[in-house]
Amino acid sequence: MRMNGWRSLLFVPATSPQLLAKAMRSGADAVIVDLEDSVAPERKAEARRLAHEAITAGGNDVPLLLRVNSQPEWLQEDLAQAPLDRLQGVMLPKVESAQQVLDVHAALARLGAPQLTIAVLIETARGVLNAERIAAASPNLAALGFGAEDYASEMGVAPQPPSLLWPAQQVATCARAFGQACWGLPGSIAEIADMEAFGALVSQARAVGFTGTVCIHPKQVTVANQGFGPSAAELEWAAKVVAADEDAQRSGLGAVQLEGRMIDRPIVERARSWLRFAAR
Predict the structure, then answer these.
(1) Fewer CB within 10 Å: N-end or C-end of the chain?
(2) Is the dihedral of CA 186, 191, 196, 197 positive or negative?
């Protein structure tokens, strides 16, 4: 399953299965059942059981992903006990090498799910430097995510755009180069009160090249869905561009002027992509 159209992915702790039904109604493009950061070490076994029950009981209206643990001993149990046939993908955190992706792919194959989609989170300096190799690791890899909080912590900087624009763009560029979705923000995901500030961060993320973001609160979902899709003004502009291009082609012209700007092929393709996105 390709994930390029997903703008919002809402996390639900596996230890809080009662939240899954609410998350499925939040408007998120996908829901991530989390076995990693939101689950204390002593509750990992319980979380696997609860995740299996919740995912099995859940409907198919919204795509479900399972975020597993990156530690090998926990990872194997996470995958072995997961209802893989009910998932649209597995999310692997703290990825620093292509081998980690290959290992997950091999584990899924042993469990009878060789075609299950993989998404990864790049959250360290080493992961950012290896992002191109990671993106090329497996045809089953459909998305790269950027973990701003962990990256900023390792670098000893605040999770703010001035410190994170370069690594965020590195991850987004590598994902785009391989036709993958790219999720993230050049700043903290922790903002759940000031939605205007969160919306500004989403706008910066879209400008960097991200296609969506994970969310940790339902309030963030609406903002992400709006921010990562073309606005009404952009769609109006796109329709004019496509119409002008079609007129130019009928007249045998390679480029045309519209509202004081030359409209050439890259601009037309961007306009068409926005219209296709809106149609989906």
Answers:
(1) C
(2) negative
CA end-to-end span of the chain: 15
Residue type, 146: F
3-state secondary structure of 89: strand
Domain 8-227 CATH (choose: 2.60.40.2150, 1.10.3470.10, 2.60.120.1440, 3.20.20.60):
3.20.20.60
Paired strand residues for 67: 34, 91
The residue type found at 240 is: K
Beta strands across the sheet bearing 181-183: 181-183, 141-146, 118-122, 89-92, 64-67, 30-34, 8-13, 213-215
Q: Structure pTM?
A: 0.84
